[in-house]
Design goal:
31% strand, six-stranded antiparallel beta barrel
Length: 355
């Protein structure tokens, strides 16, 4: 196949490229330039030069042509602006969800799809092709599985996707990189929004949304415990960055009008944990038909944890989800993904959490 391989500078995309080459595909490598240089000067270092350096070395080593594609404007408009707007409204966006659909398999496919109709990435996932279509299936490495982040893809985008790492464990990928003498074989996995690099996410949000002092209040006693700098810095279930003694404390509710953050101490003995069992999904993206005879599992964040759940359509656009066990960190703006037999069936945004 003629495949456009997207490289980030990390070990996963590098090994994905090597595996594709071993299968004798017609390859071209692409590095997507999305950093916002002028803003990052004010915030800290962005390691894009280091990333691109690794990409150049690996492409030269494998003798694969490389092209750098600039998508700063598109990334800002379709990922960052949307995420900042959602945060200011008190919701918890997922930039990776947006990036995969809008940039990696959106803008890139529009740019190179005529010459390279398949897009390959270093995601841990499987695009399973059958007579019934292409299905998004969980990776062999369930800990590293990234189908949650890919569940926003359209059916057409999924049909153009290639995920060479679906049958590999992360340890195997690093070993291949080491044996291949790749310069990045021991490089740490990236964290947070891809283009931020070493810039702290909190500083980036502060730069754009500013600060607004408000109260941190105990959810049960209504006692004031401290101050915060703006509700947009916090998400439901968060325990970091509260700077409160006697914890751990978790964010359980936000009052946007009065800019109040409500917290709760994790005390199992007193059963004070505020957990949620139901929420409404909207903005649905269906990748495969649901089998109502099979069990339904749901992920509400990236990770190995899946909840057994029951769902019912409230109307063609909304689904009511009932989990078999509660979760402290369900928040509006998050994405939920429905699975059956490790196949990603449907995704949607959480628009309402039912207390």
């Amino acid at each position: 196949m003629k495949i456009a391989a997207l490289l980030s500078g990390g070990v996963d995309s590098a090994v994905a490229l090597k595996l594709l080459q071993q299968d004798n595909h017609d390859l071209a490598a692409f590095y997507i330039k999305v950093w916002l240089q002028e803003e990052l000067v004010s915030l800290g270092d962005c390691p894009w030069e280091e990333d691109l350096g690794h990409v150049r070395q690996i492409c030269a080593q494998l003798d694969v042509p490389l092209k750098v594609i600039s998508l700063q404007k598109e990334y800002w408009q379709k990922v960052i602006e949307v995420s900042l707007r959602e945060m200011k409204l008190g919701r918890t966006p997922n930039p990776d969800f947006l990036c995969n659909r809008q940039i990696k398999f959106g803008e890139m496919l529009s740019l190179v799809g005529k010459d390279y109709p398949q897009i390959a990435t270093g995601h841990y996932a499987k695009a399973v092709r059958t007579s019934g279509g292409v299905f998004l299936k969980m990776a062999k490495d369930t800990i590293k599985d990234q189908t949650y982040f890919l569940a926003s893809l359209t059916k057409k985008q999924l049909s153009c996707s290639v995920f060479p790492l679906g049958d590999y464990y992360k340890t195997e990928v690093r070993q291949i990189a080491k044996e291949s003498q790749f310069s990045n074989f021991a490089r740490k996995d990236s964290q947070g929004i891809c283009f931020l690099g070493k810039v702290k996410f909190r500083e980036f949000v502060k730069f754009h949304l500013g600060t607004q002092k408000g109260k941190i209040v105990d959810f049960h006693s209504r006692k004031e415990l401290g101050e915060h700098e703006g509700h947009w810095f916090y998400t439901i279930g968060q325990r970091q960055g509260l700077s409160l003694s006697g914890g751990p404390w978790y964010v359980v509710q936000k009052d946007l009008i009065n800019n109040v953050i409500f917290v709760n101490r994790n005390s199992r003995e007193k059963n004070q944990e505020k957990k949620f069992f139901q929420f409404v999904m909207s903005h649905l993206n269906q990748l495969a038909e649901l089998d109502w005879e099979e069990e339904i599992f749901i992920k509400i964040r990236h990770g190995e944890k899946k909840y057994l759940a029951k769902i019912s359509f409230q109307n063609p656009r909304d689904i009511l989800v009932t989990l078999n066990e509660g979760d402290q960190g369900i928040a509006e703006g998050q994405y939920a993904v429905i699975y059956q037999n490790d196949i990603c069936k449907l995704s949607g945004m959480i628009v309402a959490v039912i207390a």
